Amino acid sequence: PANKKLLVLPGDGIGPEVMREVLRVIDWLDRRRKVTFDLEEGLVGGAAIDAEGAPISDATLAKARAADAVLFGSVGGPKWDGLPFEKRPELGILRLRKELGLFANLRPAIVLDALADASSLKKELVRGLDIMIVRESTGGIYFGEPRGIETMPDGRRRGVDTEVYTEDEIARVARIAFELARKRGNKLCSVDKANVMQSGRLWRAVVGEIGRSEFPEVELTHMYADNCAMQLASRPKQFDVIVASNLFGDLLSDLAAALTGSLGMLPSATLGAPDSAGRRHALYEPVHGSAPDIAGKGIANPCAQILSFAMLLRWSFGLEEEARLVERAVERVLAGGLRTADIMQPGMARVGTTVMGEAVVRELEKLAA
Ligand code: NAD
Ligand code: IPM
Ligand code: MN
Asked: What residues does substrate bind to (predicted)?
């Protein structure tokens, strides 16, 4: 069926560079597997600000809503850092998440055998690591009101952000995390600061209630977010699935990236609630940003973007076999010794973005032969 509607939003910085390599994979699937997408491209972030005057236009948002899935690159960069808050490129991704109701951001962190030496931790601590961070992504301090910089009566300024969670927001992301845990190692660790935050107290209570009433077979633990950061950096293999608020999940997933070797390796899927027909909005994006420090040099690692596309194949289209093909192709390229600069190790061959992408397609070709 040729009606898989995909909206591709490359964005800024290395976004378009790594997206080009996914397009190669999409082209291969079309030619060799008869898996065909109805592709449309749009602007987001700084690119959209420059061309359309806003970090995401209403027209692009409408296209995202109409698509079966959105493949997102990354947004932001020094060129737009001086803009007023409401005009910043980052608002592009925040609006997409919020307006499409994409509340569950799944961020797997897997240490591939070939990259165990590239980890920030000793090999013994990370070999075989496979964790899933479920980050709440439409609530919490990212969206809570009141927020802003205001001037107080004495003329001095104060900055305000508000962490708010309703019990329904906590329950729905908790259910996603419990369901994932049930399919994996049956262990869920819920992260909060229930010792200092009211929203954290509610978070812990609600996750506990959902666990007891709906998922009694899943082993649930609670951990304070600061301790979780320390535990991830010292004994990461104790974790299976982690569920956390928007902000804590953001921080912990960048930390998890360091364990796997590089931010350039980590994909993610951001899912909404299924409708009555079982269809859900979904957006796929690497955990990393636009990497202004290496943009334009052709050296960015395209693996996170390619692996995000593999998640898209699995989660939005049920194409498990194709998803695994893409994941295995990436693994084999790395096992074969090719490395972008971010995961470079002694004795390996250093390559740029394009050579890496081409190598993935070559491995796909071999795997499918
Ligand atoms: P970043 O993730 O862009 O980069 C952090 C570091 O990781 C940099 O040293 C970068 O070179 C490296 N890196 C990231 N991706 C890489 C890849 N694929 N290959 C090799 N190295 C890679 O984070 P930052 O520098 O804090 O932010 C830069 C801009 O990106 C900011 O404007 C920020 O707001 C934005 N950002 C956007 C997203 C998104 O679009 N989802 C995510 C994070 C940050
Ligand atoms: C991410 C990014 C975004 C976030 C920014 C760019 C808004 O850091 O996707 O992890 O904080 O959610
Ligand atoms: Mn982040």
From this structure: 97, 107, 135, 226
Closest CA to 309 of 12, 93, 26: 26
Kindly report the protein residue whose alpha carbon is nearest to atom 34 of ligand 1: 76
- The Cα–Cα gap between 340 and 329 comes to 16
pTM of the model: 0.96
Class for the domain spanning 120-260 = alpha beta
The count of residues in the chain is 369
Active site residue 226: yes
ipTM of the complex: 0.97
Annotated active-site residue 130? The verdict is: no
Question: Do the two domains 1-104+275-369 and 120-260 of this chain adopt the same fold?
Answer: yes
State the catalytic residue, choosing from 4, 12, 165, 193.
Answer: 193
- The structural domains of the chain, with segments of one domain joined by +, span 1-104+275-369, 120-260
CATH number attached to the domain at 1-104+275-369: 3.40.718.10
Binding site residue list for NAD(+):
77-90, 289-301
User: Which one is catalytic: 12, 68, 250, 342?
Assistant: 250
Tens-level pLDDT at each residue, the chain (369 residues): 458 999 999 999 999 999 999 999 999 999 999 999 999 999 999 999 999 999 999 999 999 999 999 999 999 999 999 999 889 999 999 999 999 999 999 999 999 999 998 898 999 999 999 999 999 999 999 999 999 999 999 999 999 999 999 999 999 999 999 999 999 999 999 999 999 999 999 999 999 999 999 999 999 999 999 999 999 999 999 999 999 999 999 999 999 998 998 999 999 999 999 999 889 999 999 999 999 999 999 999 999 999 999 999 999 999 999 999 999 999 999 999 999 999 999 999 999 999 999 999 999 999 998
